[in-house]
Amino acid sequence: MTSVKVAVRVRPFNKREIDLGCKFIIQMDGKKTTITNTKMAEEKMEGVSESTREAMRVKDFTFDFSFWTVDREDKERYHDQERVYKCLGVDVVDSAYDGYNACVFAYGQTGSGKTYTMMGPHEDVGLIPRICQDLFNRMTDETTSYRTEVSYLEIYNEKVRDLLKVTNSNNVVHNLRVREHPKEGPYVQGLSKYIVHSFSEIEALMHKGNSVRTTASTNMNDVSSRSHALFTIVFTQATIKDGIPSEKNSKVHLVDLAGSERATATGATGQRLREGGSINKSLVSLGTVIKQLADASEKGLKPGKGNFIPYRDSVLTWLLKDSLGGNSRTIMVTTISPADVNYAETLSALRYANRAKNIINRPTVNEDKNVKIIRELREEIERLKTMIGGDIDSISAPKVKERLHESEARMKVLTEEWSEKWKDIASILKEQGTLALRKEGAGVILDSALPHLIGIDDDILSTGIILFHLKEGKTRVGRCDAEPPVDIVIAGEEVEVEHCIIENISNSVTLYPHNDSLCCVNGNIVSEPTKLTQGAVILLGKTNMFRYNNPAEAAQMKEDLKKGTLIKSGVTVSLSRTSLISQSMTDLYRSSENLSGSGWELDTSHREEHERIEELKSQIKVLEDRHHSEEEERINKQAAMEIELERKQNQLDKAYKELEKVQNEVVQAHQYDHVPIKLPKGAQIDDLLKQLDEREADLTESSRQQSDTLHNKLETLRHDNDIHKQSIQAKITLLNDKCRLKDTEMKLLDDELMVKKQTAREQDMEDQKVVDIEREQLNKMQKDFDIIFHANLVENDVVKQVYDKLEVHENDIKKQFLVKETEMKERWKTDMDEVANENKEIEEAWNDLKEQEKEYEECLKSDTLTDDERNEINVEVEQLQEAKNLLKIEEEKVAAKERKIVDAIEVEMDRWEQYKQSEETEISESKKNLAKELGNRELNSLSNKIVEKEGNISDMVHELKKQETALKELESDIERKKSHFLSEKEDILKEKETLNDSLCKSAIKLEQGIISINEELNDVDEKLNHELQEIQEERESLLLLKKSRSMVDSGLGDLEEQLQQVHMTEDDIKKIEDKRKELEDLQRAVDKANEVLEEKVRQFDLARDYELDIIELEKDNLQERVRQDRINALVEQEVKRRMLEEKIQREQKRQLERDRERREREEEIKRLKDAHHREMKQLKARYEQRSGSVISQSMSNPYATVMSADSEGETIRRKNTGSISLSPNQPRTINITIPSYRLQCYGSDSHYEYEVKIEVGDDIWSIIRRYSKFREFHQEIKFKIPEINALVFPPKKLFSKTEKVASERRHQLEFYMRSVIEICSKIPTCSLHSTQNQFLSKQVLCDFNPFFKKGLFENTKYGTG
Fold this sequence. Notes:
Blueprint: E1 2-3, E2 5-10, H1 15-19, E3 26-29, E4 32-36, H2 50-57, E5 58-62, E6 65-68, H3 81-98, E7 102-108, H4 114-118, H5 127-137, E8 145-156, E9 159-166, E10 172-181, E11 185-189, E12 194-196, H6 199-211, E13 215-216, E14 224-225, E15 228-241, E16 244-256, H7 263-266, H8 271-299, H9 315-319, H10 321-325, E17 329-336, H11 343-356, E18 360-361, E19 366-367, H12 369-388, H13 398-431, E20 435-440, E21 443-448, E22 452-456, E23 467-469, E24 473-478, E25 488-489, E26 498-505, E27 508-513, E28 519-521, E29 524-525, E30 530-531, E31 537-540, E32 544-549, H14 551-563, H15 568-582, H16 585-588, H17 592-669, H18 682-793, H19 797-861, H20 867-934, H21 937-1052, H22 1055-1060, H23 1066-1185, H24 1207-1215, E33 1230-1240, E34 1247-1256, E35 1259-1266, H25 1267-1280, H26 1299-1322, H27 1338-1344
Parallel strand pairs: 2-6, 2-17, 7-16, 7-17, 24-25
Antiparallel strand pairs: 1-18, 3-4, 4-5, 8-9, 8-12, 8-15, 9-10, 10-11, 13-14, 15-16, 16-19, 20-21, 22-23, 22-32, 24-26, 26-27, 27-30, 28-29, 28-31, 31-32, 33-34, 34-35
């Protein structure tokens, strides 16, 4: 046991804390860390003692390490990354090499330096890179094999993401599922794992994961980790020390936790706020787990022994389950901030760390179970040798000697198997230097840098993958008998000794076929040198198919595909090759004409598709041309309008000049008049314009504020609705999952019931056949009994008289039974007729009510009815409904009466049958007693057999009824469960409907709110536009007046002073006014023309944008349709092809299966006939030699009959069906039985093992063998003894892992083994024949074949060793 090692590290002030002027609150002295509350005054407090106040202000903590990383100048106290690694990281590497699991996790507030401690910057790396580098630096022992496997994940918002498995869009894989193995503990399903061979490889994977890890900027940290990162190393080392193998495994978890944070300090909102909530939730769960583990360790309790640890409250604690309180050496690094603004968070982190150091873990060395067994065997051998003093020959007890030899042999076998496993892997990886193996999710990927061939085997029994590297130079391909030996050996039809040569020159591979050799490339037969391309399918002979891969060429094709330079023909070739691979081998060596035909059809489909695409492109081009023509027309119209506007502007300028001229004439003509003309001054006009601008700005600002308020209100409304919608959708998703779960459970119940019914039906049929056979035998026995009884009855007159009286009595009773049954049937018929009449009357009443109801419905549909008539009909309809209810009650009463009568009839029938049976039994017993009085031995024996047979039949019938009752109970139980599931499903659907209604209501409410806010926005805009329009009109009038004033000023100097001295006549004033009105009319016409022009331009822009949108939409739709049609056509074509192939394959398999079964049946029948013929000959010969002797049943003829008249011997032989026919000279017999079988392993490795019990005289032992061992025994023995070929070995079956197949196979294997022993015992040259070994023993049988030898590890409840 060991406690969690805890270290605390304090960082220097960051820029934010320096700007805030924070105070330093952390002090470290050796292992002690002190935190001071600067907000608490140092002066004395009333009612509080000095010691209490000081304890509240200053708190001390003691840890394993306290790292001071504040001031680099303080070299004595400063702990850099190297010193931290020496204190913590070296122990982790030592633990890995010692075979212990290890874990390092960094905890602390956000921005406190966790990532710096664990990862560090590139120039000053942290713990994780240093641990990985030291792990590889220590791999110096050449006698030791090392294996390193890494994975990298992050926990983001309580979802696991794989940081090393990047998709095509450079996104990491989200939401992997966490599972828990009963022995290995929690693991992530589908997590990619990479095998690395150097630090550079692990460093590259580390950088790859860090580049996609989730980070974001907050107020407290510019690069804040928004997820927990978990870097895992699985380190395995294997070696042999002092002749004993050693294999140690270590799992190292290196964890960089996200920091705890407060929303007020980080300023997090939106997504950052949700991330912070998920981080804090998982850290709270971590704190709870640490607290409960510490409490359990202090109380001396083990986790799970009376105390519950909530590991599954978060994904983080679940994955760190073993590291926190299990099999691991764990180190916790707590990083803290020295600033007083973070006092609460720092104190909380120190308390976390203080709790964690109380946790007690129980690390153990992780070694291979076989290695552990080898070590224990070695210790046992040493102990046994110590017991005997080291001299093996002096052992007097044979059991001790046997046990010592057995332990040594077992250790030797395990050591060799373990060594071969590591040697094979190492040799393959060493020879194939360009071959790399890595695990990704649930799969394993083989990567190779050289061109290579991958075998595509058509044999369904083949389970391996064959890969042939094509190294630089020539690679010879041919049969195994070629001289000199070829590089690649193939076999099969039309394979030549020297079939072909494959030459690789600078990654350019060419196939050179030999003369008359069958070589196909992509379905085309080639006889000339052919260059191979990536993905080519090669067929050598008729049965050897390979796929050619060239990694360099494949990489180039990927680049071309990304750049869009891959031509369509290349795509067509790729598709055709894919279809070639999906075909079977029997189709690939057909004529090249068929293959080219299929390619032509594919090209035709592509050509049609290309034509359709070109037609759609031409339609798009027509739309674009129309758009261009309309755009040119718009530009011409705009130019014409601009010319017209310029012409009118010239007219306006000319009018201004005439007005100026008139004013000058008036001034000159009336220089001496004294009528003054006052015009507004320029400064006054400017003031008015400035006031208008201020008013316009105020209105705009007020409108903007109102608009912002309404928009904020609209966003709030939408946000609330989105939250509500997400909540409801989550509930609906949960309900859908529950509903699917109920459907699955109901389907499972239906399947279970169907299987049970099918099994029961088959069992009933078999049992019924047995019962029928037994009854036939019983009838035959009874007939024989009657014949013998009547034959003996004639000789005894007294017994005959008694028998005649019994016959008379029996006939009288039968007549009485007949009369009684007739009376009962009449009585029952009367009661049932009465019930039938009542049911008939009720049925007629129902028909009348239905007709009446139909008439009322037709009347109500009529439009000619008055209100009174309609009311009367409604009243009658109500009365009709009441009559229906009464009739329904009456119907239920009649049904109850009918059930009561039927129950009474059944009870009476049962009693009557019991009475009849008792009377018949009494008469039968009397007859049997008479038979006994006759004293005939044969009659008595036959009578006893009849009684026994009747008892057996009765028990069988009772068992059949019992099985039927059990099946009915099971069916009713399943129906109850289904009804319960249906009711639960209805409740779920109702709840789902309620949630959907709520969702609809919330959507309607949202739409109403949006409409209301939009109306308010429109009102604000309309009001603003109206007021701005008024301001604009005022501004235009002032500008016009100002322009007039400026014109006057430019011509006459100070026009105001001069005009004040001018006296004009009314005609002059009128003339000026007319000119001014004319000028204003002209100005209004120009303004109107400008407005018309602007409106036309705006309308034309809108029309143009609308046309462009339509064209773009049509273009997108056409492209989508083209793409979808193309995909659909390809999918449909591929589906049809695959369905046709599957159908052909199914028909072929069915035909082969039928032919095989027919052949097996014919062979079995022939074998049984031959065996029966041989057995009958042997039996006749023995009968002639030994008259009256007992001949036992032969294993090879299960239907052999008895040649003796001794019935007792016959009974004994029938009971002992498992015995072997033996000659009287054979002192010992071999009896083989298979009493049981059991299922071993789980999943794909599961298989059935059979217990084989062997009896040879007094030697009895059991061995455990699986089906494959029996098959190997058959293959070996049929070559040694050709007569065994006459036996049929139990064949393979499709569903070999089912209970039914295992049960059938047990009987078949038992029959086969007995037959083999019997045949071998009759062959003089065999070691089991009496001439070879007069006394059979266990050793003789084991020497005959090792199959019968008890293995080293077969120490089961069935064995004796």
